[in-house]
C-alpha cells in the first residue's frame, strides 16, 4: 500500500470520526401540575437524566444541576418559589399566548408553503430558459462553423 499525504489526512479524519461523541444537552426542567391545575415542583429521577437539568426560573442562569439533592435544594430557594408562584398567577395569559403562537405557526407554515411553490416554479423557469439558451448556442455554433467553412479559400 502506498502512503501519501492524502492517505494520512483521510486516516486522521476517520480516526476523529471514530472517537467523536455526540453532544448531549441537559434537559430543561418544567414543573408538573397538581389535580387543581397549579404548577408544582416534582423533581425528575436523575437515573433517567444523564446530563443534568437546567432550570428556566432564572435564579442561576446556565447552571446545570446534575444531582437530585442539589436540584432539590435549588427548588426551595426564594427566587425559584417566586417563579413558580408567577407561573400560577399567569396561567390564563400563558394559555392566550399559546393560542396566539399556534396561529402564528400556522400562518408561517402557509407562507413557507407558498414561498416553496414560488421557488419551485422559478427553478423550473430557470431550467427551461437554460435549456433554451444551450440549444440556441449549439445551433449558433453550427451556423458559425458553416459560415467559416464557406469563407475558406
Would you give an account of this structure?
With 153 residues, the protein is mainly alpha-helical. It has a domain at 5-89. The protein is 62% helix and 7% strand. It has helices at 5-19, 68-75, 78-89, 91-150, and strands at 27-28, 32-33, 39-40, 53-54, 64-65. The strands form 2 sheets. Strands 1-4-5 form a 3-stranded mixed β-sheet. A two-stranded antiparallel sheet has the order 2-3. A hairpin with a 5-residue loop joins β2 and β3.
Share of residues in strands: 5-15%
The oligomeric status of these chains comes to single chain
Strand order of the largest sheet: 1-4-5
Silhouette: elongated
Distance between the termini: 59 Å
The percent of residues in helical segments reads 55-70%
The number of E-state strands comes to 5
Key attributes of the depicted protein:
153 residues, mainly alpha, 3-stranded mixed sheet, two-stranded antiparallel ribbon, 4 helices, 62% helix
What is the element layout, followed by pairings?
Elements (H helix, E strand, L loop, with lengths): L4 H15 L7 E2 L3 E2 L5 E2 L12 E2 L9 E2 L2 H8 L2 H12 L1 H60 L3
Parallel strand pairs: 1-4
Antiparallel strand pairs: 2-3, 4-5
Structure at a glance:
This protein has a domain at 5-89.
